[in-house]
């Protein structure tokens, strides 16, 4: 077992440790939130457990208030009290939304993250951010609340579709790009035999950044690299019914933000490295150059902005990020053009 900080367990026995943990806590009731895929593939790994199951439909389009109402209703109907616990057994959608519902139900019940997608393991389950989308804006309503525990069982990834796997891998690439050049170099070639170690490495990096700045006043903003443009592309695709995953949008966003990072000192060679890796591993975003103004309107709605200015995290070199750098529409348009033509 690998314990990161005081409450993140990484182990191929993690769900056994979760059961032991539940026994030791004596919760009044145990609720498990799943979607149809994690119900099928991951729930059996939880073993026998006296629990209430709450199942929702998978997908980012369901990460909204209507689904929250269904989750709160399920807790309410089963008479969940403040000594109940909600276990989020799923990807980032389940984790973010379950975390939000748990933190707000009766002003907060315990929540345990049991991430089942790579993205949720290396990113969404760690750091206490949770929430839902609102009117096509990503993660617009939410709060910071740490889960009681996080149990990461990498073996659960055996059933994760490859496309979803690569989407999560984008966040690992980000960890290398913002804070560890050697890790980035290792990740440029996917090597699943090293995956468990890499999950631990990514969780450690994220955990340490978040530990220094839990409420994103400074260094935690590094983790937003790729997300200013990435979220805008994701939201635009969501609004227009185009199929593009969060992690894929982040990969596209990292490439474009790397291009813009020329102004903060990222060298041409380093931009080429980012380009080569991302174009090799990821599909192109389903957007056109002439849609730049509409995508930019989502960038303008980004919750990290202040007084209408777009603040972005950029790179100064591979392994080193800088936050709160103002970017403008012409830079975005140019980066989008280069991205689409490469
Ligand atoms: N809170 C944070 O800090 C944070 C960080 C990054 C991303 N996020 C959020 O995470 C979400 C994306 O997470 P995601 O990529 O995990 O999406 P997701 O939750 O939609 O999961 C992806 C798909 O994989 C399926 N799945 C999950 N685990 C599986 C398994 N083991 N076997 C088979 N199928 C499985 C799910 O049912 C779903 O269809 C976004 O909403 C994003 O905003 C949050």
How would you describe this structure to a colleague?
The structure is a single chain. By secondary structure, the chain is an alpha/beta fold. The protein folds into two domains: about 160 residues, Rossmann fold; about 160 residues, Dehydroquinate synthase-like, alpha domain. Helices cover about 45% and strands about 20% of the residues. The strands form three sheets. It has a seven-stranded mixed β-sheet, with helices on both faces. Strands 7-8 form a two-stranded antiparallel sheet. Strands 10-11 form a two-stranded antiparallel ribbon. The chain binds nicotinamide-adenine-dinucleotide.
The first-to-last residue Cα distance is 43 Å
Helix content: 40-55%
Major sheet: size, sense and barrel closure?
Answer: 7 strands, mixed
Number of strand segments: 11
Contiguous low-pLDDT stretches (5 residues minimum) are none
Which CATH class of the largest domain is shown?
Alpha Beta
CATH topology of the largest domain: Rossmann fold
Give the overall pLDDT as a whole number.
Answer: 96
- Report Rg: 19 Å
* Sequence of strands across the biggest β-sheet: 1-2-9-6-5-3-4
- The outline comes out as globular
Bound molecules: nicotinamide-adenine-dinucleotide
Continuous helix count? 13
Number of domains: 2
- N-to-C series of helices and strands: EEHEHEHEHEHEEEHHHHHHHEEH
Question: Short description, anyone?
Answer:
The protein is an alpha/beta fold.
């Amino acid at each position: 077992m690998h314990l990161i900080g005081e409450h993140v367990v990484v182990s191929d026995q993690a769900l056994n440790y979760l059961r032991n943990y539940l026994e030791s806590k004596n919760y009044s009731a145990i609720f498990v939130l799943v979607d149809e895929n994690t119900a099928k593939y991951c729930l059996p790994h939880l073993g026998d457990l006296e629990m209430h199951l709450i199942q929702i439909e998978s997908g980012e389009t369901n990460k909204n208030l209507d689904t929250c109402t269904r989750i709160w209703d399920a807790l309410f109907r089963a008479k969940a009290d403040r000594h109940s616990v909600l276990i989020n057994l799923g990807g980032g959608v389940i984790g973010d939304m379950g975390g939000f519902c748990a933190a707000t139900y009766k002003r907060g019940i315990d929540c345990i993250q049991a991430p089942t997608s790579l993205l949720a393991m290396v990113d969404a389950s760690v750091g206490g951010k949770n929430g839902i989308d609102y009117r096509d804006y990503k993660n617009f309503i939410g709060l910071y609340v740490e889960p009681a525990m996080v149990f990461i069982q990498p073996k659960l990834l055996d059933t994760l579709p490859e496309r979803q796997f690569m989407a999560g891998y984008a966040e690992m690439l980000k960890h290398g790009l913002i804070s560890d050049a050697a890790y980035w170099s290792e990740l440029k070639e996917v090597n699943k035999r090293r995956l468990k170690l890499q999950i631990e490495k990514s969780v450690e990096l994220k955990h340490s950044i978040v530990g220094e700045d839990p409420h994103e006043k400074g260094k935690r903003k590094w983790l937003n690299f790729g997300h200013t443009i990435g979220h805008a592309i994701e939201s635009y695709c969501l609004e227009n019914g185009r199929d593009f995953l969060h992690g894929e949008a982040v990969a596209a966003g990292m490439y474009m933000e790397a291009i813009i990072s020329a102004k903060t000192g990222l060298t041409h060679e380093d931009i080429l490295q980012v380009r080569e890796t991302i174009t090799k591993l990821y599909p192109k975003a389903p957007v056109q150059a002439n849609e730049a103004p509409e995508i930019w309107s989502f960038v303008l709605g980004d919750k990290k902005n202040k007084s209408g200015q777009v603040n972005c995290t950029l790179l100064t070199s591979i392994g080193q990020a800088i936050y709160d750098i103002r970017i403008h529409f012409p830079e975005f348009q140019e980066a989008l053009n280069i991205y689409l033509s490469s």
